[in-house]
Known about the structure:
Layout: H1 2-22, H2 30-45, H3 53-60, H4 65-69, H5 74-83, H6 100-113, H7 118-125
Helix pairs in contact: 2-3, 2-6, 6-7
Amino acid sequence: MxxxxxxxxxxxxxxxxxxxxxxxxxxxxxxxxxxATELTxxxxxxxxxxxxxxxxxxxxxxxxxxxCDNPATALGRANLLAQLxxxxxxxxxxxxxxxxxxxxxxxxxxxxxxxxxxxxxxxxFDELKTDDVLKD
Length: 136
């Protein structure tokens, strides 16, 4: 019985080592750093505060990550609209008028990482009512 436990433990250790060796999760490539720098410059030029470079590299990588996965789909639109609310939950939740710069921030991410979906994104969100509501 002990031999079976030792065999199972040995197989698990081997699988862990193989997994660590073959893991390709290193997203901090030169291309990811270049795109993060480009995005930072675009955000600052648009008057938006850019997150830390390391955060952009880890979150967006070189392909835009989840932001580029479904920005103009019905699910992507529903997720964004669900976040543009007053912060209440359940029956008290209401949509709010957002600053155009909030939507511009995501458009800049799409422009940098996946420009092929930018036009679809703009078509879906251009009809939203926006105003100058953020303080500089």
